Amino acid sequence: MTDRNKILLESGTNELEMIEFEMGKNKYGINVIKVKEIIMPGTVTPIPHAHPYIKGIIQLRGEVLPVINMEKVLNLPQEKCPTEKFIVTEFNQQKVCFRVHNVTQIHRISWEQIEKPSDMYSAADSQVIGVVKREEDMILMLDFEKIITDINPETGINIQKLRHLGERERSDKRIVVAEDSSLLRKLLIETLEKAGYVKVQCFENGKDVYNYLDTLLSETTDILKEVQLVITDIEMPLMDGHHLTKKIKEHDQLSKIPVIIFSSLITESLFHKGVMVGADDQVSKPEIEKLVEKIDQYIL
């Protein structure tokens, strides 16, 4: 997967490659840059008293990796599939293996093709964060970060990690955030308020952020008086964080705004993509205390 990832990272166009896999009768998708490799199932060692999602652990080239049973995650009947595969992933600074029924193909699509699920059929705690409509069927994009956080809440954003910063003065600096997860938007607002940043404006995707900034330009001659910093996730419907960063940094006036990418995809092999699009800094989720330290550097 490494060579394929390097090719993708050169583009900087609002696109992704998505690996399609099957669970039961449904088709699901995972961003290819999360995937290290796809392997045939190996011997899984069960772990007593583990979380229900955890099937056990495997050893892969000297590393011990947890195996997550996607049947449990998606509440499907347990079955033995002759086509089953293990998808080995790396994000949130950890490697995890997902057991799926089958891996079928790879699609190259635009983030604009991914629709946010309607509140009518998607509960607040749903793992589905996007829907890709195709002529013959649909592919559901899953929130793999949420799956990991459900298993181990310590891997998520923890406001208690800011305790060492002590009491903070309230800041009148405005921060704009692009984050598609409603849970993470709420956590970021609460955490940044705890850090003294009370003027935080959140949007669900990069396109809404860019349109907001573009609108502000018609109302001010100095954009930095209105917005002092942008924080963006990478994976978002309509416009991803890399494309948003690139558009901001290529704009004569908007380029003055510091942009910090805050994502589970800040890894050694992917860091240079943020550099290529002009990000001022990059912080891996869930290192919220490091994010606050970076904010302090850029806008205080």
TrEMBL record:
Residues 15-153 form the CheW-like domain. Keywords: Phosphoprotein. The modification 4-aspartylphosphate is found at D233. The keyword Phosphoprotein applies. Residues 174-300 form the Response regulatory domain. This is Chemotaxis protein. It comes from Heyndrickxia acidicola. The lineage of its organism: Bacteria, Bacillati, Bacillota, Bacilli, Bacillales.
